Amino acid sequence: MMNRLQAIELLKEYVKNEKMIQHCLASEAVMRALAVKLNQNVEKWGLAGLLHDLDVEITNADAYIHGKKSVEILSELKIDEDIIDAIMMHNEVSAGIPRTTQFQHALAAGETITGLIFATTYVYPDKKIASIKTSSVVKRMKEKNFAATVKRENIMECEKIGIPINEFADIAINSMREISNQLGL
């Protein structure tokens, strides 16, 4: 299996936007925390979070193809099939079929909530993740105009893996806090 350093090198080869790299690092942190919570393989789940947007710049984030190029790249590198599957399925538009596995739901929900957490942090006076409360993120879920591009239905897939939204937001916030220096938060 590819190690984390190799994955970061690969990510930086394909993704140049620093904010997108921070999103991938945040997604990795959330996925690792979810793996611990759900007794899953922490390294595998972390790699899926880290590499899920590998092709975002190649595809210009085109929902109809985003994910497919990542699958091609990662297949050539002989990455585990379940990681590739979760990455393909994180974008339901490109995948063309609904998510069904715990891994797929976790990645879709986990990578999506990072956007809501970043946005919530940016409206706080100090712009520090250490200051935000779980209740603030959950409240922002209900505000459709706040971080309007964040798909709330993807975040709510946390319930499909047995984690209520309040607990899910708490796990995500705490995992991102642990790497706040890397996220600029």
Q: How are the SSEs placed, and which strands pair?
A:
Layout: H1 4-14, H2 18-37, H3 42-51, H4 68-76, H5 81-89, H6 92-95, H7 102-123, H8 134-141, H9 152-155, H10 165-177, H11 180-183
Helix pairs in contact: 1-3, 2-3, 2-7, 2-10, 3-5, 4-5, 5-7, 7-10, 8-10
Describe this structure in words.
The chain is an all-alpha fold and 185 residues long. It has one domain (4-179): Hypothetical protein af1432, CATH 1.10.3210. The protein is built from eleven helices and no strands. The protein has helices at residues 4-14, 18-37, 42-51, 68-76, 81-89, 92-95, 102-123, 134-141, 152-155, 165-177, 180-183. Helix 2 runs antiparallel to helix 3 and helix 2 (18-37) crosses helix 7. It is globular.
Structure characteristics:
single chain, 185 residues, mainly alpha, Hypothetical protein af1432, 11 helices, 62% helix, 0% strand, globular
Second-tier CATH architecture: Orthogonal Bundle
| Percentage of residues in strands | under 5%
Q: Spans of 5+ residues with little confidence (pLDDT < 50)?
A: none
The number of domains is 1
- Give the % helix: 55-70%
Radius of gyration: 15 Å
Main structural class? mainly alpha
| Helix and strand pattern | HHHHHHHHHHH
Distance between the termini: 31 Å
Mean residue pLDDT? 97
- Summarize the biggest pleated sheet: none
Label the overall shape. globular
CATH C-level category: Mainly Alpha
What is the CATH topology assignment?
Hypothetical protein af1432
How many helices? The count is 11
Could you tell me the number of beta strands? 0
